[in-house]
Amino acid sequence: MVSRESSGDKEYIRRFSFCRVVEHLALIVLFVILAVTGLSQKFHFLGVSQSLIIAMGGIDDVRFLHHVVGILFMVLTAQHIFVNLVGIVFQQWEPSMLITFKDAHDALYNVRYYLGLVGQPAMCGRYNYKEKFIYWLILLGGIQQIITGFILWFPVAATKYLPGQFIPISKAIHTNEAMLIFLIIAVWHIYDSMFSPEVFPLNTSIFTGYIEKKRMQQEHPLELAQLIEAGEEELSD
Amino acid sequence: MKKFPDGDFVSTYVDTNALTMSVHRSLQCTACHKEFSDQRHPDRAFRNKLQFRIKESHVCRDCHAVEKIKFRTIHEALFKKEGVGEAVVCTDCHSAHAVTPVTGGNVSTSEEKYCLRCHASEKHMVFKSGKSVSIRVQVAELRNSPHRNVSCSDCHFGFSAEEHPYRRFSSERQYQLASSEICRRCHFDKYSKFSESIHNAMLSIGKLEAPTCIDCHGGHAVLSLSENRLAIVQKCKTCHNAVYDIYARSIHGSALFKENNKDVPICIDCHSSHSIKNPFLSDFHDFIPDMCSKCHSNAVIMGKYGLSTDVVKTYLSDFHGVTLGLYRKEAQKRYRPDDRPMAVCTDCHGTHEIASVSGTDIQTLKKTLQKRCQTCHTNATASFPDAWLSHYKPSFTNAPGVFIVEQFYKIMMPLMVVGLLFQVFLHIWRYLVSR
Questions:
Q1: Average pLDDT of span B365-372
Q2: Within the 382-401 window of chain B, which residues sit less than 8 Å (CB to CB) from chain A?
Q3: For every residue of chain A, which 3-state class applies, written as one string?
Q4: ipTM computed for the complex
């Protein structure tokens, strides 16, 4: 699964498979559509939202689009869970996204690093604690959005099994969680993968599937060490 | 032809054209020729034509009594002559069947006096339908109306001492409709509002029972209705009797009738007075929240009755209100899906039958509400109405779930965003220091 390629004097290491690259692209498209169609409803009182809604064909069409893309988002989420569960259980994939004690340690360690108490940031594996935090927030938040979204889409059916107040509760969760995810993506993920000085103007590895060896050395040293250990022969070619 | 003993004669031909163009057109033959009818036609003997004409023209004085006409110099002179035995024949000047006023003789009289010479008497205007209506003007009513200083021809344009065009209407209603056209010459603003109304639309498709100006305001007894709210409701009742009864039992109607409450809405507060719209169209339905909010978001009025002004805000910020707001924007800009009406105040609270929710037990309310929900949400279950927070802002007591979620995010969101921003700044700061 791990391979490396050279272009010029830079050495690249494969970080994401083609499927993960496509998955992330799909997620970007779906996220943007959901955010535009959803937030314009949340902020319906703003002129810009009203113009957007009318440009998209009116509130009925916007809701239709939001529902359809929501379904696609659900499919994407289900696919992600299914593929990774199968991979971990049957293919011996490493469950590298699971949060461990080391992540808590790394986070605290990095606080000391930021304060200048230690000279080096924490040494991270395949995913650092920030990436894991975002990942679980999106995955769990996404599942929460799917469930509450369905309740809001089919309130009559939902109240056959749930008390009526679950509708406004779902609405409160859906609208607030959406805002939270949006803010975290907008503030953190965009900074981390675009404006962060280490990667500016763009961390391309999720799009190309490759990461420069030098950067991997800095950002994921433990993973690199593991790779070198596992593929000593291959790398020494 | 009628011959006289002296060989003279008079033609018995009546020029009906001249008669129908005359001011006496509404009179029957027998009104003047009193001895005659279709059963009786006595043979009368006259010495000569003059005697015939004197006799016949004495009929005129039955209506135009000497006292009424002698104020005119010319008549006074003629009556003096008559006093000394000289013959006075009315038709010498006014002619007989083609009876006309002698023009130029009315300058000294006021227009009102001139018109009232006929229109103060119980004469009738006959319609093609055979029905008739009195042409009498109730002078006292006119004097008490806001139009007391308006002269006859100001309204009855085209009529004056000089001209009195001949009109013949097929029915009284046609005549009333034509008369309503008079008002717009002064009240054009009201007329243009009225012309957009459903009443005018009904008239234009031939439903002549729809009201025009004079049906509500009256004719010579014209009324300004704006002061008398009870009277307005009564006007609408004339046609909308069933709705009136329902309204009278409602919380608004009963307050109006029992305590003459000035705050409660009457018909025109929601439907407007002149530009009344079709209430079944989205054009009207979509704006119902605005009508209700005129009072229900007014703290001064609501304060008197201990009612919350949050009702409109909570509606507008929830699903139905938001969607309605957007539908209205869409209607303004491009289109409005007419097949998707959105629930407004009246869809849950009722329209004319609107009742107070206080005093009704919660289970009955829920059952009623469930039925109202089912109008659109066909299979709504008994727990479905609970999805609506009954115009309450979520609090720990009335909607604990919603309240807790809202509070959780209110704390979490800024905490997380500030935390992440802090991370970002630390990261940049450290990067710059390390370099």
A1: 88
A2: 383-389, 394, 399, 401
A3: CCCEEEECCEEEEECCCHHHHHHHHHHHHHHHHHHHHHHHHHCCCCHHHHHHHHHCCCHHHHHHHHHHHHHHHHHHHHHHHHHHHHHHHHCCCCCCCCCCHHHHHHHHHHHHHHCCCCCCCCCCCCCCHHHHHHHHHHHHHHHHHHHHHHHHHCHHHHHHHCCCCHHHHHHHHHHHHHHHHHHHHHHHHHHHHHHCCCCCCCCCHHHHCEEEHHHHHHHCHHHHHHHHHHCHHHHCC
A4: 0.85
